[in-house]
Design brief:
Blueprint (H helix, E strand, L loop, with lengths): L1 E6 L2 H11 L6 E6 L9 E2 L7 H10 L2 E6 L2 H5 L2 H7 L4 E2 L7 H4 L1 H10 L7 E4 L2 H10 L4 E5 L8 E4 L2 H13 L8 E4 L5 E10 L2 E4 L4 E2 L2 E3 L3 E4 L4 E4 L6 H21 L5 E11 L2 E8 L6 H5 L7 H9 L12 E9 L21 E4 L2 E4 L2 E4 L3 E9 L2 H12 L7 E2 L6 H4 L1
Parallel strand pairs: 1-2, 1-4, 2-3, 4-5
Antiparallel strand pairs: 6-9, 7-8, 7-9, 10-11, 10-16, 12-15, 13-14, 15-18, 16-17, 18-22, 18-23, 19-22, 20-21
Bound molecules: adenosine monophosphate (AMP) and glycine.
């Protein structure tokens, strides 16, 4: 069957690779794909948000299954349009993707259905928001409501910082029309629990942990993710069962009850707090870079899994027992400004998986073309071995403008 993957990052490279292991996916297209994906799929020059062009492509190339990677494509209703045309697609409708796009929607749903999450209130008025913050304790968590590419969350340590942030978000409309969710500050280990969801039928993937800060010891600015690993020794089977029952299944059921059934990957960004596991955020898609360490462990046929979800049937999965750990190579300066076009050599010597995130081919050579450039993913019987292997293999990659964290997985070794 012909399969189309929408997106162009490391996540989509991992999805394409999982599909390439299936005997059922005879032809894989990626729109727009990247230089790494091009080794496994035919890349077509259509952007992830060019919905009509994607529909047209799927129809004219007998695409029987489309898998959506990025949130941006969901937000412009790619799933709704494909379904209108009778095309099979893996991903949530625009209405269901609100669970990621609107923090207020996600919060209201959680309160209504008794899903554990931080206490919160939503404001559009600056003075009212300030009065709420003054009544509460510090630090306080301020989240701009809407898609802000991960930049809309500020943890304010002082009243001055809270005030300046709320001014930005509500008065200067720096991010657009202002609405802010103010949340109780939670502490504990964060982890990501992704589930395949088809209405109320859900199936978990192995839990993973992202590393959002740019530098070792979780220092520096927030990024799109500098590395990830699976499994997590501090998440017990009891924790997992609790999160599945009281968070993931409950939310899947709630979405059905609300008339916006979810289809695709529901990503729970969870925290193991002293008062139990609570929700930090939901995403309506595969996490990045979690997908790059989770999907290599998928033993089931990826076409079967995605197709079951697209057909609203119960997905079932099998996973290897291996620990998997990925280290991101990013352009120096990222997540701030950075230069592109640096030649990358030595990838052929790497005895581990490499998923491309921001690369290009220039005069036959592989060059950097984004903030996050690639992720090197190693699998081994233990996390420690996986970390050592990833570190060793990454040393084969030569490029003048890359940096990476050396402490991925550190929380698992404490
Ligand atoms: P979000 O965009 O909602 O995932 O938030 C980005 C990051 O801010 C999260 O990964 C957490 O590290 C942190 N964060 C968000 N909400 C809270 C909270 N209520 N308490 C503590 N940290 C939080
Ligand atoms: N790893 C966090 C995300 O995908 O949003």
């Amino acid at each position: 069957m012909n399969v189309l993957v929408i997106g162009s990052g490391g996540r989509e490279h991992a999805i394409v690779e999982a599909l390439s292991r299936s005997s059922k996916a005879t032809k894989i297209y990626a729109a727009p794909g990247n230089a790494g994906i091009a080794e496994l799929a035919e890349c077509v020059a259509i952007k992830d948000t060019e919905v009509e062009k994607l529909v047209e492509f799927a129809k004219s190339h007998d695409v029987e299954l489309t898998v959506v990677g990025p949130e941006a494509a969901l937000a412009v209703g790619v799933v709704d349009r494909f379904r209108e045309e009778g095309l099979k697609i893996f991903g949530p409708t625009k209405a269901a993707a609100e669970i990621e796009a609107s923090k207020d929607f996600a919060k209201r749903l959680m309160v209504k259905y008794d899903v554990p999450t931080a206490a919160y209130a939503t404001f559009t008025d600056f003075e009212e928001a300030m009065a709420y913050v003054r009544k509460g304790s510090l630090p306080t968590v301020l989240k701009y409501d809407g898609l802000a590419a991960g930049k809309g969350v500020v943890i304010a340590e002082t009243m001055e910082e809270a005030e300046a942030t709320l001014r930005d978000m509500l008065l200067d409309t720096k991010f657009g029309e202002g609405r802010v969710v103010i949340e109780e500050f939670l502490t504990g280990e964060e982890f990501s629990l992704m589930c395949f969801v088809a209405g109320n039928k859900i199936c978990p993937m192995p839990v993973a942990q992202d590393h959002k800060r740019a530098y070792d010891n979780d220092e520096g600015p927030n990024t799109g993710g500098m590395g990830a690993y699976t499994e997590l020794p501090f998440i017990t089977p009891e924790d997992h069962a609790y999160a599945m029952e009281n968070i993931m299944q409950r939310v899947a059921d709630a979405m059905v009850a609300e008339g916006v059934p979810f289809t695709g990957v529901l990503y729970g960004g969870l925290m193991k707090t002293p008062n139990g596991i609570k929700v930090i955020e939901f995403n309506a898609r595969f996490g990045d870079p979690e997908t790059e360490v989770v999907l290599p462990r998928l033993k089931s046929d990826a076409v079967d899994v995605f197709m079951a979800v697209a057909n609203n049937e119960q997905p079932t999965t099998e996973w290897t027992d291996e620990a998997t750990l990925g280290i991101v190579l990013a352009s120096k300066g990222y997540p701030g400004s950075y230069d592109k076009g640096f030649v990358i050599r030595g990838t052929e010597r790497v005895d581990a998986k490499i998923y491309h995130m921001g690369t290009a081919r220039k005069d036959g050579e592989l060059v950097t073309a984004g903030g996050r450039v690639m992720i090197v993913v190693a699998s081994a019987p233990s996390l420690e071995e996986a970390l050592n292997k990833a570190r060793k293999e990454i040393a084969n990659i030569e490029c003048d403008n890359l940096f990476h964290r050396t402490d991925i997985g550190a929380k698992a070794f404490r």
